[in-house]
Specification:
This protein is mainly α and about 270 residues long. The protein has five helices and four strands, in the order H-H-H-E-E-H-E-E-H. The protein is rod-shaped.
């Protein structure tokens, strides 16, 4: 197959590879959206459990305070009944102090009881709100999960079809080695793995290339990679492009060492 046909085939492969890489990226990203919602749900669930634990403790404290309060009321009432049985001033004074202490304790427990009842009520309101929020978030997670599952199924079908189509390009003109290199270039260069040369300028990195190198590309005898951006190159005639070849060699903007001054061959191999 002529090189021109190979370039046309590579251009089509580039489109299919770009679509394939885009689908692969979407398939990776989709579960991340669900993960964010799930993490929020887990946080709400944790807060609900912690709030419920505090609520249960407050209820236990309230129950204990009620028992203490009732005991205090009974103690005061029993002391007041004993007032009818005293016979001496000393007994009266002692019992009067006992009644005052009991009444004071009773009032203190009553205040604590009211405060704890208020706290238990607030916990119940908070738990109701958190439960509603938790149910709402659970609904969003379930909805998102079903939506993502359907999207993933569809996108995986599309990806399988594209992978099959991309693999169909493999043959004598596009070897497995070239296919893999080209795929890496397309992925790393944001979908542009093959670009034209206009005059002496690579349209991928916009760097001026040596005349002899461009002539090699124009000859279409083999596939050439840009020594600067590593993309596959082909020559494309544009208005004024041939004028650059008419310039004397001294007028061209190159270093004396040519490509060797610009390119580390081992670095180029890594890019490929």
């Amino acid at each position: 197959m002529e090189e021109a046909e190979v370039f046309a085939k590579l251009n089509q492969l580039q489109e299919d590879l770009t679509g394939r890489f885009s689908l692969e990226e979407e398939i990776v990203k989709l579960p991340r959206d669900l993960k964010v919602k799930q993490e929020l749900l887990d946080k709400i669930n944790k807060e609900y459990i912690e709030e419920n634990d505090r609520s249960e403790q407050a209820k236990d404290d309230l129950k204990s305070l009620r028992i203490q309060y009732e005991d205090s009321v009974r103690a005061r009432e029993n002391s007041e009944k004993q007032m009818e049985l005293i016979t001496t001033q000393r007994e009266f004074e002692a019992l009067e102090k006992e009644i005052k202490d009991a009444a004071s304790k009773e009032q203190s427990l009553l205040k604590q009881l009211h405060a704890k009842e208020k706290q238990v009520h607030e916990f119940e309101e908070n738990l109701t709100e958190k439960e509603q929020l938790m149910n709402l978030q659970q609904g969003e997670v379930d909805s998102e999960s079903n939506k993502i599952e359907a999207l993933l199924t569809e996108k995986k079908k599309q990806l399988f079809s594209l992978e099959k189509k991309c693999n169909s390009y493999l043959g004598s003109d596009i070897t497995e080695d070239l296919y893999n290199k080209f795929g890496n270039i397309v992925k790393n260069k944001k979908g542009k793995g093959i670009v034209p040369i206009h005059g002496l300028v690579c349209q991928g990195c916009h760097i001026v290339l040596p005349v002899q190198f461009v002539n090699d590309v124009r000859s279409e005898k083999q596939i050439n990679f840009c020594p600067y951006c590593s993309r596959i190159l082909y020559y494309e005639d544009v208005e004024g492009g041939d004028e650059m070849f008419a310039k004397p060699g001294d007028d061209l903007d190159f270093e004396e060492g040519g490509l060797s001054d610009f390119v580390d061959s081992s670095e180029f191999d890594d890019l490929l």
